[in-house]
Amino acid sequence: MHKGDGYSEGSTAGTAPSSPVPVALRRVLDLVVSGEATSRAEISRRSGLARSTVGQQVDHLVARGILQELESRESVRGRPPRVLTISPQAGTIAVADIDTLSSQVAIADLTQRVIAHETVDVRIDAGPKAVLDAVTERLSSLLAKHGRDPGRVRETVVGLPGPVDFQHGCAVRPTGMPGWDSYPVAEHLRTAFRCPVVVDNDVNLMALGEAGQAEADTPLLCIKIASGIGAGIVTANGDVYRGADGAAGDIGHIRAVGGGDVLCACGNIGCVGALASHRAILRSLGIPESTGEDPLHGAHELALRVANSDPPALHALRQAATEIGEVVAMLVHMFNPRTLVLGGPLSELRDDLLSGVRAVVYQRALPLATRKLTITTTQLGAAAGIHGGIALATRDIFSPPGIARLLASDPT
């Protein structure tokens, strides 16, 4: 698997070297993981492998606890057919989607079934050690509570709300994240769980989560409007486009059409994130982002004012939608996505935000780029990053290097 597909030598360094995976075994496992084949006969037919070869590989994978073979529940005459699936006990995926005010954590099995999902209320400005220790403690607690062996965590995925060096597993000069610059996030989690760790931008994970939904067509462009504004791009073949250094999608620092001399946290003036982010709207309306009693006070208060048709709130939201729409129209021309998803706290105010962005995109972008474009808000909400992290981990685990690590692990 190419590094752009999610496998990263840098972010998974420290794992034991693995032997090459036999082609026949990989083909068998690929067909079961993808759902293209669920029985030995189907695998043989689709792969062109001899039944005896398929039988040997399936028996090996079942013995290793990676596959399970169960009797089908379908009502048929004679002997019930046997169905092959990934074993729920083959291993666990741990995911942490870290945001400015709190973090989402979850554990899942290798079938991508979410076993448990919780919120950790630690602000990102508490620093990387405090946040990552809290995340580690909660993930460890979930593993223990649900009877998952910590020694069989196959991969940990972490999403960060800032620029990420994907190869080295750390944030790079993020704004509003004191202490996080170059902090070894991957190494911190690898020490705790002793498994490969992937660190990615939170919007990339959100985009992967949304791209995995049944009605989402790719290429997909996901825009997260929160404390800043970022974009995640999933290509037609399901890869995340990260750019040469992982900086792709950091659109919050594009100069806004009406940016004027508004100062951004990056030191420049007129950035769209400084003008149209959720945080910028709250600041313009004098609404605190959080309080001691309610970490999400700002989101709740803004939603209430919009629901009550408060003129300043409606004007601020519509102006932000216009500024975001201008940038999005440019991205639509550049990437020609099939689906555009708006996420983050502002996406909950979908009518005003969606209509404003749509109006600008359809006005500014040429018909060829928009004739089949779907513009919508997130289907998964705050859980999008979690689902994207699980999808990324699963793809890594069933890549050739990941399969080799699975086969090298203790089968019991």
From TrEMBL:
InterPro entries, sorted: ATPase_NBD, ROK, WH-like_DNA-bd_sf, WH_DNA-bd_sf
UniProt xrefs under SUPFAM superfamilies: Actin-like ATPase domain, Winged helix' DNA-binding domain
A Pfam family recorded for this sequence: ROK
Family annotation (Gene3D superfamilies): 3.30.420.40, Winged helix-like DNA-binding domain superfamily/Winged helix DNA-binding domain (1.10.10.10)
Protein origin, superkingdom: Bacteria
Family: Belongs to the ROK (NagC/XylR) family.
Protein name per Swiss-Prot or TrEMBL: ROK family transcriptional regulator
